[in-house]
Amino acid sequence: MTTEVFDAPWYPGEAVVATSFVECGSGTVMTRTTLYESCQARDIVMRSPMKEGAADSYDRLADRLGSLSMA
Prior knowledge:
Elements: E1 2-4, E2 15-24, E3 27-36, H1 39-47, H2 50-66
Antiparallel strand pairs: 1-2, 2-3
């Protein structure tokens, strides 16, 4: 688990993030759960483009990992 805090906060408080990895067939499923201090903070984040930006980053990571040769 990690704590998410920004030097220049753009939502109130901080968030606790848990990430898990589970093998599934020939791949791995990653689940990331974020707990915000308030519904207000969660709503601010959900209205931001952060969700799409994170999805793009994870897609690029999946592409990169998929191109690695497993020896």
